[in-house]
Please model this.
Amino acid sequence: VLDAEGADAARRAEVLALVSIAMADAFIGSWNEKFRWNLLRPVTYIRAHLDPDWQPLLITPPFPEYPSGHSVQSAAAAEVLTALFGDGYAFTDRTQEDDGLPARAFPSFRAAAEEAALSRLYGGIHFRAAIEDGLTQGRCIGAFAMRLRTRA
Model:
């Protein structure tokens, strides 16, 4: 996006600093809540009550489920990028092309964040509440980061 915008060094520094601050705070905030709530993962519940042989599509991380860290991180970054580039800023993500995957187009940063968050439900490692509440937490953290004064 910065390349497409032809951003100068000052703009690049501002964007990268604000996104980095939001993501660092999102990491801290999500992990604080994970260990405050200490909720079990879907695999634990499903194996105990529904199907002892069930396997999630993604490898289940060895730490508490709630909230979804991917959701918090993605929403925090999306909130900052939306504030800086505008709501409905369409972009194409080409980061996986070297791995043989196609480029992905998104209508907005928030849409990309919501898809990243939902992937954790489809992967079987989070319940929906962890995703939805994680997105809410991330949006709050991103909005807070945007209140930082970055220019004189």
User: Anything to note?
Assistant: The helical segments are 2-5, 9-37, 42-49, 69-85, 109-122, 128-146. The chain has a mean pLDDT of 96. The two ends are 24 Å apart (CA to CA). The first helix runs from residue 2 to 5.
